[in-house]
Amino acid sequence: MLLLLASLAFVQYVRTSSSDQNPYLMTDYSRLHPVKVERVLQGEAEAQLIGLVKDAKAKGLKLSIAGQRHSQGGHTYYKDAVVVDMTSYNQVLSVDPEAKRIVVQAGATWEDVQKAVNPYGLSVKTMQSLNVFTIGGSISINAHGRDIRNGSLIKSVESFRLLTAGGDIIQVSRTENAELFPLALGGYGLFGIILDVTLILTEDEVYRESTVLMNLEEYSDYFQNEVLPNPDIRLHIARISVAEDSYFKEAFSKNYTVDRSLKLSDHNKLKSNDNWVAPGKLLFNINRSTDWGKNAQWNLQKHFFVEQSDKIVSRNNAMRAASAFMEYSQPGANDLLQEYFIPLPQFDAFVQRLGAIVKEEDMNLLNITIRYVNKDDEAVLSYAKQDMLALVCLFHAPLSKAGQQRMKQGVERIINEVIASEGSYYLPYIAYPTLEQFRNVYPGYEYFFAKKKDYDPDELFMNYFYEQYGG
Amino acid sequence: MNLKWLIRSQSIMTLAAGMIYPYYLLFLKNLGNSFSKYGLAFAVFTISSAAVSHWLAPRLDKHGVCMMIVSSLGMMGAMLVFPWTSSYGWVLLLQLLMGTCNAMQRMSERVLLADYTEPGSRGAGIGSYHFWTSVASGFAVILGGFLIDWLTINILFYLSALLYGTSAWTIWRTNRPAVPRAKEGSVSEHNVL
Ligand SMILES: Cc1cc2nc3c(=O)[nH]c(=O)nc-3n(C[C@H](O)[C@H](O)[C@H](O)COP(=O)(O)OP(=O)(O)OC[C@H]3O[C@@H](n4cnc5c(N)ncnc54)[C@H](O)[C@@H]3O)c2cc1C
Questions:
Q1: What is the pLDDT of residues A267-318, one digit of tens each?
Q2: What is the predicted pLDDT for the residue at A323?
Q3: I need a labelling partner for A379 at 20 to 30 A (CA). Which of A308, A370, B66, B81 fits?
Q4: Burial of B134 (0-12, 13-18, 19+ CB in 10 A)
């Protein structure tokens, strides 16, 4: 018995000895590329952060800035750097219901913002589907989500205060230090520490959810003819089947339409969406490992979502999707996100190519959702070069060298198709795309990195994104 | 009851405890914003454990078995309630309950161990008791970690509750006066190894 226990412990030791499980190394949501950092410092006060910048400069140390570290390409840390963890710098400073503005410290999460603005009947304009991310991390990657009317996140930012590499705090807006505005937003932490942010809010509303099941080939027409022209549809998300039986054939679309007959105050109590985590997590785990699981998941989702059709939900509640069921902590493998933005006319052809490549390369695709982003090229590294449909793909892959090499190979092929479709891809995720592909998709790169050198000549603010694509 | 059954029931009990305990600590740490607050939760546990011991002590000899059952049932209740707690106050209350259960379990365990062994020849029995409960606890933590990776900590609480229930039932089952020949009040004496 004791021997059995000891061998079980040994098996666990071996199973968890991969470096993605090493608690003394730093990594991000991907658990890839763990390295040793000098130290992690909790951001607490302005004076402390100024001191840190000056001190790091004097000692020749690098700084990396971290929010919730849900980016996946080493954007939040660097070997031997000091990592500034901003999650403790998270106060809501003020809400102005008249002007519909909130001022919030960069380490606060969307959840904090939602809690602060919900009582005033206000809501965030653009954010991710989940509310776990920090404001600083979200504006630094210029996020987008289910809202189809308000552009990417940069549009909801009025101004922010930035602690620069020189140790100065400056106000940045479209009129003050305006050059930095489109650089630091979508700037991946390379232009300084964003301290606090003034966000433009919108009104909270009551929506009716409706889910429509359709063939994937009908989707883009449906979206352009039924969804976009209907101004009452405020949020939208769609999902493509990755189940064997309906692979890239079926899709369902979920719209959130304003219902003016309902009173907001009857529906605006903030709710947790994390119910039924355990069965969801179990099912998602089966989804990761078997085709049977993928079929079961799709059928259940169909049933569940169509069933839920006509559900009434406030905007703030619609913008806090469940996520706990997707959490994956097991060693040696992980769920890795990728996102591709495709102009509407090219969408149908691209999607079919995507499905084919994923099959040919034998990639384990768990889940794929579609969002819409309006053209918004304000940020220098903007992905929304035109009105685009975004395909968010969640892959499951081994973290081993070989496993990652195979992912890279598949993703490079996909990116070639993206480029052929005049699309773009999202930068917060793993740096599979080659330098050429990056430059091709983001022609603003030259200006972006040149300005980085201007504002931060010693390359004080450092991360792996910069190392890989800044060269 | 006899030593064999005591070992069985207490191994199940340690399985339940070992499975949740380390993860319970993490759960608590997430609740408290400071280590002091976290420390306080444990102080409350020890205070209640110590406080009830005086009251329990005189009843131990007669009701040891009963206490064991009540302790396991109490723990089962706590495990069922934990996932639903929504305030630190509740956590403290549960810590109080668990401290009490802990006192009952620890005290009756010792008394029963003494009852079921003979002076001069206790080594083997106690050794075997320690062996099985430790092994159970080892399996439990490994299993617990694995289960959280696959499921959630809440499920672990429920599973632990189930095991506590089983351990209570094990004691109750081997202890009900099933043998009509047994003289009243001497169940344990008759069943000694
Ligand atoms: C499960 C999941 C779902 C997602 N869904 C969506 C989605 O629906 N839509 C979408 O657009 N994205 C989505 N993302 C991507 C996500 O929005 C980004 O990874 C985002 O950066 C996460 O925020 P964070 O707080 O974790 O930032 P981090 O990952 O911690 O940081 C991101 C970048 O911002 C920089 N940064 C952080 N804080 C500051 C600061 N105070 N000052 C300066 N720079 C800073 C960092 O250096 C880094 O370069 C998703 C990611 C995951 C893992």
A1: 999 988 777 788 888 888 888 988 888 998 898 888 877 777 788 999 999 9
A2: 83
A3: A370
A4: middle
Quote the ligand 1 centre to A37 CA distance (angstroms).
20
Instruction: Quote the CA–CA distance of A408 and A424 in Å, as a whole number.
Output: 17
CA dihedral sign of residues A155, A156, A158, A162 = negative
Structural domain spans, chain A = 87-203, 206-433
Average pLDDT over residues A69-74: 96
Pairing of strands A63-66, A122-124: unpaired
Cβ separation of A5 and B155 shorter than 8 Å?
no
Q: Which CATH class is domain A206-433?
A: alpha beta
Rounded Cα–Cα distance for residues B15 and A386 (Å): 59
Q: Do B149 and A278 touch (CB under 8 A)?
A: no
Q: What is the dihedral of CA A168, A188, A180, A373, to 10 degrees?
A: -150
With contacts defined as CB-CB under 8 Å, which chain B residues touch A2? 131, 135
Q: Which of A65, A124, A150 most suits a substitution to test ligand 1, by most atoms within 8 Å of the C-beta?
A: A65
Q: Do B142 and A8 touch (CB under 8 A)?
A: yes
Q: What are phi and psi of A162, to 5 degrees?
A: -120, 130
Between B135, B145, B152, which is nearest A5 by CB? B135
**Residue B133, min C-alpha distance to chain A (Å):** 12
Residue spans of the domains in chain B: they are 3-192
- Long-range Cβ pairs for the range B52-61 (8 Å, 24+): B52/B99, B52/B100, B52/B103, B52/B104, B53/B103, B53/B107, B56/B103, B56/B104, B56/B107, B57/B107, B60/B107, B60/B108, B60/B111, B61/B111
Ligand 1 atom with the shortest distance to the CA of A195: 41
pLDDT band at B1 (very low <50, low <70, confident <90, very high): low
User: Which ligand 1 atom lies nearest to the CA of residue A109?
Assistant: 25
Phi, psi of B164 (to 5 degrees): -60, -45
The ipTM (two decimal places) reads: 0.76
Which residues, in sequence order, are CB contacts of A259 under 8 Å at separation 6+?
A206, A207, A208, A312
- Among chain B residues, CA nearest to A331: B149
Global pTM reads: 0.89
Mean pLDDT computed over every residue of chain A: 95
How many whole angstroms separate alpha carbon A460 and alpha carbon A166? 9
Q: Tell whether ligand 1 has an atom less than 6 A from the beta carbon of residue A186.
A: no
In chain B, residues with a C-beta closer than 8 Å to the C-beta of A278 are: 151-152, 154-155
Mean pLDDT of A193-205: 98
**A279/chain B closest Cα distance in angstroms:** 8
* CA distance linking residue A143 with residue A359, whole number of Å: 29
What is the per-residue pLDDT across B51-93, written as a single tens digit (0 to 9) for each?
999 999 999 999 999 999 999 999 999 999 998 888 888 989 9
**CATH class belonging to A87-203:** alpha beta
CATH 1.10.10.10 given to domain B3-192: no
